[in-house]
Structures are given as structure tokens and as C-alpha cells.
Predict the structure.
Amino acid sequence: MSLALALPRRVASFTPVLPVVAVIALLGLPLAPGDDGGAGPADAVSGLVVLACAVRLLRARRRPLTRTAAVVLGLPVVGLAVAAVGASSPEAGLTGLGRYLQVFVLVPAAVLLLIRDRADFRTLAWSFVGLAGWQGAVGVHQYVTGTGASYQGEDVRAVGTFGPTDVMGMATVVAFGLVCALGLALGRGPARQRAVAAACALALLVPLALSFSRGAWIATVVTCGLQLVLAGVRRALKVAAVAVAAGVVLVGGFGVGSVMLQDRIDSITRVTDAPDQSVVDRYTMWAAATSMWRERPLTGVGLKGFPEHRDSHASLALSSGSDTEGAGASFQRQPLLSPHNMYLLVLSEQGLIGLLALGGSWLALLVCGLHGLLRARGPRSAGDGAESGGTRAPGVPECGLVACGLLVWQLVDFLYADIGGPSTVLTAVVLGLVAWWSLAGRHADAVPGAPAAPVRERAGEAVSR
């Protein structure tokens, strides 16, 4: 009887973040072949997350955000409002404004407010790992059975359930899961949790490699390297040795995509000397975005304006699109409608005002997050024994490692990608996790001598005070 009563209470304790878990879980559903990559079920549920947060705030009758949090999360609205007014049509302006507000303002703020403590944060981090494991398993199966997206004439590219029109979708999901798993493995959690997280991180290296996504590889290497350094040089060397050994076994011993992987890795060093057509297209679109910005340096060409102005600013080196097929979809030509660089996309469509506003928000989150993580390093206080059994091992908080890692990964990946496709909603959830740690969670982690429940309350007060 007591067990039957305890289970509902345990489930109820996670109720505020369950809608966010649902957003993550819905990205595991398969997309229909030929899906245009627009808004999907996860985007719809993200709207419900914002609504649920608003209802919760009204019931609690408290101020939602501190002045600092409101400024940091609301800063992008300045550039967005100016760019929406300068859009080519009211429809384009409203559509672009709604999408940017969803990804960079509303959903991150809702996630920040729905997370109450480190337990909620870890629930979402493990949800990322679970989604990455599912998508990675589908991707590995696609590679082994030759049912993935087309790559070098063979249907072997691992794309998970996202299909060939969103080849970055699975790579992004798997990379997020790997970063979360590594942060949990390097943090202060129980030994069993760290061991499981480390195993998950190693396992996710396989589908990430089979995604053949150079941008995701670079961002993951940079991020994991930073996480290892923040966790301690000695531990970094141990984990790096294990990762190298695992790579040798997988590629050298089992031959997991060895020829194609080697060719793809080598192509990273040839992006300037002998670039392939995809790299040429990217350079051309980057130049076009820069040209648009020079034409309107302060406000840009307006939201959703890049596709309309692309041809008048791009050189003849730009191809008409990229070929996609495989993974259950027939051959189609996919138009190139963005520069595949988030910073240049914002610069071209929102100008310097938009880039400074959006970039300033990200920079503030990064500085606050790293500052909180560095301050929290060292021996843990005995007051956290409610979660770890009475004593805390020296080290860094796993929430800080995960949050800072996710933000660094996203900022590096934005050098090679921008928003678009079903997986974009995960960027909003990531920014919410980062915002919680940077603006509230780091204060909760520093509370000395407090049991688990009071820490939960203080975390909420840190946001709403």
C-alpha cells in the first residue's frame, strides 16, 4: 500500500518538467518521407510548455523573473522587433518573429521557470541522453543495413528518424546526449550514475561518427575537451585515453566506417585547399550574407529575407541546391535557403543591432554559467548529503558541466549551422537549461548546509525574487 502511494508522489514531484520531457520525447517519432522540416508535434508541445508555465506563475502569484534574467532573456527581442518591421512582408515578419521568440525567448524562459532544482535538471539531461540513444540506435541500424541517407553513392549516412532532408538532426541530438552524458559522468553524482553516464557517452560516439557531420564532430571535440579541462586535468587525461582506445577498437578493430570516416575527416583539412561542392556552396552563401549586411549594416534585410536576397548577392559558384535521397525518401533537390551559419544569418537579416542583442544574451549566459561553475568547484558541503548519502566528493557540479557544455556546443555549431528543422526546438530547451544554471541553479548549488527540499525552494526564489 505504501509503495502504491509513494509512486504517484514520486511522479508528481517531476510534474512541472514533464511537459519539457514530452517535447524531447516527441523528437523520437519518425517523420513522414518528404516532410518539409517545418513545425512538428514537438513545436506544438513547446507552446503548451509556455502556457503551462504561465498558468503556474498565475497560480503562484509571483514575479516570474529577476531583473537580470529578464534582461538577459529579453535582449534578443530588441533586434527581432526591428528586423520584423523591416521584413519584406508582414507575413514573413510575423512568421520569423514567432519562430525566433519561440527558440530564443519564450521556451527558454519557460524551461528556466519550470526547473525547480538539480533533480529536475538531471531529469531533463537524462531525457537528452535517452533521445540520443534511440536516435543513435536507429542511425547505426541504417548504416549497417544500408537504409540511411545517401552518402558518396551509398545509403549509409545515419540520420535517425529525421530523414535525408535534415541530415543534421540526428547528429545534433546525439551530440547533445553525448555532452549531457559526459557532464553527468564527470560531475559529483553517485558512482553508479557516473558509470552509466560514461558508458552512454562512449556508446554515442558510434552514431555521431556515422552521421558524417563535420560540424557536429568539431563542436563535440571542442565541447568535450572543455568539459574535461573544467573537471580536472588528471581526469581529463584518463577519459581522453579511454576515448582514444575506444576509437581504435571501433575503427581499427571492427572497421566501423573506417574508409568513409577517414575520407570525411581528411576533408576537414581540405576546406580551403580543395573544398568539395558543399563547402563551396557554404562559402558562397557566407559571402552573400556578408554582402547583405554591408547593404544594410544596422537592421539587415529583415526576417526571412535571406532567401529573397540570396541570388542578387551570391556568385555563380553557388549551386542550385543539394541532392537528398535515401532513408525512405526518393531523390529530391533541396534548395539552399540559409547561409548555414547562425551568426551570419542574424547579421544579414537583423544587422548589427540583432547580432549584438542575440549574441549579447548568449555571451551573458556563458559568462554567468562559467563563473558559477568555477565558483562551485572544490569539496562539496556536508549539507548536500540528502542527495548523495551524507558526504560529497570533491569536484564540479554535473549541472554546471552539462549546461556550460551544451551552450559551448551550440555556439560552436552555429559557425556551421543555423536554426531550421524539427530538431530546432531542442535548441530552445538547451537554452532553458543553460539559463537555469546561469541565472538560478548556480545559486542553489552554492547553498551551504541546506537539505534537498529547501534547496528546491531557494532555487525558485533565486529566479523570482
Summary: The first helix runs from residue 2 to 13. Confidence is low (pLDDT under 50) at residues 1-7, 380-393, 445-462.
